[in-house]
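S.,

Sequence below, as promised.
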Amino acid sequence: MSELKIGTRGSELALVQAAATEAALEEAFPGRRVDRVVIKTTGDRRTDVALSQVAKVEGVLDKGVFTKELEVALEDGRIDLAVHSLKDVPTVLDEAFEIAGVLPRAPIRDVLVSPVEGGLAALAEGSRVGTSSVRRAKQLEWLRPDLQVVDIRGNVPTRLRKLADGEFDAILLAEAGLVRLGHSMADGVEVGGVALHFDPLAEDAFFPAAGQGAIGFEIRAADEGAREAVAAINHRETLLRVIAEREFLRLLDGGCHTPVGVVTSLKDGVLRMAGRVFPEEGGAPREGAAEGGDPIEVARELFESLA
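The prediction came back faster than expected:
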């Protein structure tokens, strides 16, 4: 079998996700050579501006701030597949590329991290909460309008350090990233002598992003060899759920910086979806729900159910 080249960002979390991909490929294809190519993206480079503004500043397609350079490497043949946090991938891809598969999904919840235990309810009025996500910011402003929502940049360890240093009273992170970095929700973490507590927010109360917790594989659409490799490690249940979530975003014409939350489950062949869409100008969201067997149809029904 030919060598397989995988592309990844260089953050600690991205490298953990690349290692998980390599382990899955080794199990599926014992002895096959897999080379890792680390690529720095626009989003990694531009930490001087808010994440929601990076695309505008750089002239990059919404969400493409973490994928553009990986797609260039795919196009040039330097890599055969790109390993992504799926929530960072543009809703609509150029026809030359496609998401061919995913690994089994990690937990999808958002987590409030704070020196204070008790979650959102325990935060004092006026507390400063750091997040780079418009979706998280809008839900915070809706649920706790008394809080100060402040932009934060950096990888997970950097954000935890900023919290421990007192720049924020709390921050919001994805449970998937924390778990993949070896953290326990029950134990929390100590940073610089400061004990930080993890309080996961129930996904039916604080809606996650489309694709949250999923590691996705982007390939050249015409590359049948890469497609076969990904098919061998693809997790069908996760793929069906994220297809529905991404289709819902597409129908909304939404991207990384659109304040949309969506939650799915799949049991006995029935896909259930619920969505929460916040107006750009603020205020209460529109919500809806749908269920069925076909992910594209369920996404459409959810879109049409929004009220």
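The chain has two domains: 4-106+209-305, 110-201.

Coffee later?
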